[in-house]
Design a protein that fits this description.
Oligomer: single chain
Largest sheet: 3 strands, antiparallel
Distance between the termini: 22 Å
Strand content: 25-35%
CATH superfamily: Phosphorylase Kinase, domain 1
CATH class: Alpha Beta
C-alpha cells in the first residue's frame, strides 16, 4: 500500500494494465470518451469473456509529473467511484 500524506491508497498489480499488456486483448473499449480531464479521458469498456462493464481512465505517462500526482489522481477517482459500488 502506498501512502500519500494522510491518504491510504491500496494499489494492486491487477488494477493496472502495464504497457506490455494491451487493453484491447481483454477489453473492448468504446472510442467515444465518457468524460475527459486534465490528465486523460474515461472510456466505457467491456471484458471480452465475462462481459462485465467497467470504466477505464487512460492517462498518458507524460501527463503525470510525479508519482505523487499520479497517486493523488487515483485517490480522487477512488473517492468518486467507490460510492457507486456499495
Amino acid at each position: 500500500m502506498k501512502k500519500l500524506g494522510d491518504l491510504n491508497i491500496k494499489l494492486e498489480r491487477k488494477t493496472f494494465i502495464r504497457k506490455s499488456d494491451n487493453i484491447d486483448i481483454s477489453y473492448t473499449v468504446e472510442k467515444k470518451a465518457l468524460a475527459s480531464g486534465s490528465y486523460g479521458a474515461v472510456h466505457k469498456c467491456r471484458h471480452k469473456i465475462t462481459k462485465e462493464e467497467r470504466a477505464v481512465k487512460i492517462i498518458p505517462k507524460f501527463k503525470m509529473a510525479s508519482v505523487e500526482s499520479f497517486l493523488s489522481e487515483v485517490e480522487m477517482l477512488r473517492l468518486v467511484v467507490s460510492p457507486l459500488f456499495k
